[in-house]
Amino acid sequence: MRIGLIEFLLILAIASLTVGPRVALFVDRWMRRANRANAMAARRRAEYAAQMAAERDAMLKRFRTASTVFGVGILLVLVYALGFRPIDTPPQTYKAPDLRQETGAMQTAVSTDRKDRLELGEYQGVDCIRAKDGLLYAAAWNGAALKKRTADLVRTDGGHAAAILSVEGELTGFAFDAAGDVWLTQLTTAGGTLCRAKHDSWGAAVEQVVTQLDGAPLGAVSAVEVSPAGKVYFAVAAAAGAENGLESALRTELLAHTATGCVYVYDPAARTVEKVLGGVAGAAGLALSPDGSTLYVSDLGSRCIWAVDAAARELTAGGRGCTAAFAGLPGYPGALAADTDGTLYISYRWARSSWLEKNTDSTLLRGIALRAGQNTQERLFRRTADAPCAEAVSLATGAWEQTFTGLAQDSCAAVCPMESKVYFGAAGANSLLAANR
């Protein structure tokens, strides 16, 4: 049977009147449930967001509290480490020495030409230079920490370098006696030692001669000099230990100014050791006059060179029998070398620090510098390009003859005149630098 349009429309009308309200009610209930579900989900999301915000705020608060506690702890540790941590060498107050006026000496720059350098190969430091029979000898080391360091006595003729003797630790100084034997000052973590190497056994055996005084080990031995009569003078930079090498020991004494450095003399015939001079604020270098009658001693902290009778005993720096032959120096004096023509060459390990000498009465600030470490200390004494690295003065007249500048390294550790040149060594150098004289 065919349904017409009118019948179809009537059926739809009857269906809508019969089923429509139920469908509308169902849709309304479904929409209400959906709205309630959405509202509950929104409330849950809001509650979750509020909970997360509260937890985040609590975490941030705990983090800020922990950060504050950690920062205060670090600050307290830093204050303790820099200001109150016990140190082996508490600084002493002293009066800063005056600064000498300009001398008018001839200015000479250390050569930058590689042709004027004497290369030493893989070495990373030079502590002492000596000339003998037209050859140069250098005490050089390999740059490792002191407890792993090996130092060599290196001979060079300008074109070839050869190690003729090796010791453990640091070879801080050496000198030849009339018989050709080598006297050495050796520094290890256990302390300092005065040694001798026989001329016929270089490189084979090194004899330890003096290892302690009055039952205590030697401190930071820094230099050695042999008189024409065969007496052996050696310097101890300071009474404090030298676990990190001579350079560190001298920096420590420069800041602490304990004035415990000494010079001793060893008599090989009598096998005795006697004190020549005490009270030196960093005994960093020794030299004898050409006739061997006068001993010159570098006083690092007092910026002067003491002159004493080589035969004198038990003297005190600045006291009776000890005069400041050259004072008010422009840098902190280190190695010395006296030429046969009566000229004394004075090397300057570091440039004069105005900060240090403004705070000679402040043990707190210098104590902080002592505790701060090597990098800070090196910056305090860093030499400018125009600062002198060495000077030459006539022992006969006291006239300043020459000023040497332009050493690339910060620390001038060694000086030695030979023929028409003056040679220099530095703690971080692998070659000997030269300047005309």
Automatic annotation (TrEMBL):
<keyword id="KW-0472">Membrane</keyword>
<dbReference type="InterPro" id="IPR051262">
    <property type="entry name" value="SMP-30/CGR1_Lactonase"/>
</dbReference>
<protein>
    <submittedName>
        <fullName>SMP-30/gluconolactonase/LRE family protein</fullName>
    </submittedName>
</protein>
<dbReference type="Pfam" id="PF08450">
    <property type="entry name" value="SGL"/>
</dbReference>
<dbReference type="InterPro" id="IPR013658">
    <property type="entry name" value="SGL"/>
</dbReference>
<feature type="domain" description="SMP-30/Gluconolactonase/LRE-like region">
    <location>
        <begin position="217"/>
        <end position="347"/>
    </location>
</feature>
<keyword id="KW-0378">Hydrolase</keyword>
<comment type="similarity">
    <text>Belongs to the SMP-30/CGR1 family.</text>
</comment>
<keyword id="KW-1133">Transmembrane helix</keyword>
<feature type="transmembrane region" description="Helical">
    <location>
        <begin position="66"/>
        <end position="84"/>
    </location>
</feature>
<feature type="transmembrane region" description="Helical">
    <location>
        <begin position="6"/>
        <end position="27"/>
    </location>
</feature>
<keyword id="KW-0812">Transmembrane</keyword>
<dbReference type="InterPro" id="IPR011042">
    <property type="entry name" value="6-blade_b-propeller_TolB-like"/>
</dbReference>
